[in-house]
């Protein structure tokens, strides 16, 4: 399993405009085909904020939790999934024409928990189709964010 999956897109808007969308974690389901709900706990999102999530993959719906592990306004937000320890992030880089938005999924130590690897192999058809669906979902997510911000 690769340590990192990544997708990026150029958006014709200032980082502050892009940040206003990606830092509003409640809005992630508008963009992500795999996220049905993401509910931050507390009044504001910052490093240390917990979220309760509802996700879907291959017809399965399942709950998760995550914790914001990086929060740098107008630059980056990242959250670690409790169940599988993966870290999902959005990084914003200013460009001449606006902002490059990068979405990543990192697997610390390059290894998922055994139960999840078993599930990927037996339920989701193996690593390649599972990760291919994740990357496709990342591209879809970024495309929808771009449309929303540029509107």
From TrEMBL:
Coiled coil: none annotated. It holds the Pfam family Polyketide_cyc2. This is SRPBCC family protein.
């Amino acid at each position: 399993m690769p340590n990192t999956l990544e997708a990026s897109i150029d958006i014709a808007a200032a980082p502050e405009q892009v940040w206003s969308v990606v830092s509003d974690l409640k809005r992630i389901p508008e963009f992500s085909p795999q996220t049905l709900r993401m509910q931050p706990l507390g009044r504001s999102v910052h490093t240390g904020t917990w979220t309760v999530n509802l996700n879907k993959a291959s017809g399965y719906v399942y709950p998760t939790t995550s914790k914001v592990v990086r929060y740098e306004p107008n630059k980056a937000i990242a959250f670690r999934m409790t169940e599988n320890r993966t870290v999902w992030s959005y990084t914003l880089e200013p460009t001449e024409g606006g902002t490059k938005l990068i979405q990543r999924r990192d697997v610390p130590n390059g290894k998922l928990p055994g139960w999840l690897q078993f599930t990927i192999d037996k339920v989701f058809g193996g690593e390649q189709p599972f990760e291919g669906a994740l990357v496709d979902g990342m591209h879809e997510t970024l495309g929808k964010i771009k449309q929303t911000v540029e509107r």
